[in-house]
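**User:** Hello, beginner here. Are you able to go through the protein record under this note? It all follows right here:
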Amino acid sequence: MSRYTVPAQDPGLTVIVGWDNPLTTFFAEVFDPSIEEDDEASLLWIGTDPQALLTVAALQAQLAGWATIPPAIVDRLIRDQQAATPPTPLQRWAHQLLHGPGETRPDRG
């Protein structure tokens, strides 16, 4: 899994983006570090389901209004996705346990 901090449009917020290899999706979280309660601090959390965001463009579209991903981070995210390895047997088992056997695409193992 990769994880990068990108500048938020609101300087009081923190924006994290990355590639989640086991879920084969890009993800992002926007949170307000001034709020102590985690549930309240999290303002946006996307890419938590398998294959939810398959392109950086889809990730950026979901972040519209929150942040713009700088070109250097876009390049890193694309490389992270391209370097992805197939899920391990344990990851496949956990995926089926959490999401059911019908959720795994045949071409993804």
